[in-house]
Amino acid sequence: MMIEKLGGLSPLNNVQNTRRTTEAGSVKSAPDSITLSDEAKEAARAYYLNQVAAETPDVRADRIAEIKEKIKDPNYLNPAVINATAERIMTSYGL
Question: 3-state class of 48 per DSSP?
């Protein structure tokens, strides 16, 4: 025996469509999350610092030009300036 469509609708399609909607409604998903290790965080920080160092110029031309102008002035080089400069150099070397 063969079942024909009733009034332009197929009863079999209605049953299949009902199952699909109820199954799709019952699916629950947990929120996504990512956990990074301390080693990965440190590697990312090192990469970032390396990028910053690569983009930063080694020589600050503006400061060099400013210092050259100061040195040209004969009143600039006095014992106080020389001692302050020597102290900064020694401090930078940790002495």
Answer: helix
- 36's CB contacts (< 8 A; 6+ apart) are 44
pLDDT confidence band for 82 (50 / 70 / 90): confident
Residue 3 contacts residue 11 (beta carbons within 8 Å): yes
Torsion angle (degrees, nearest 10) of CA 49, 51, 52, 55? 160
pTM over 0.85: no
CB contact set of 76 (below 8 Å; sequence gap of 6+) = 70
* Assigned token pair, 66: 């400013």
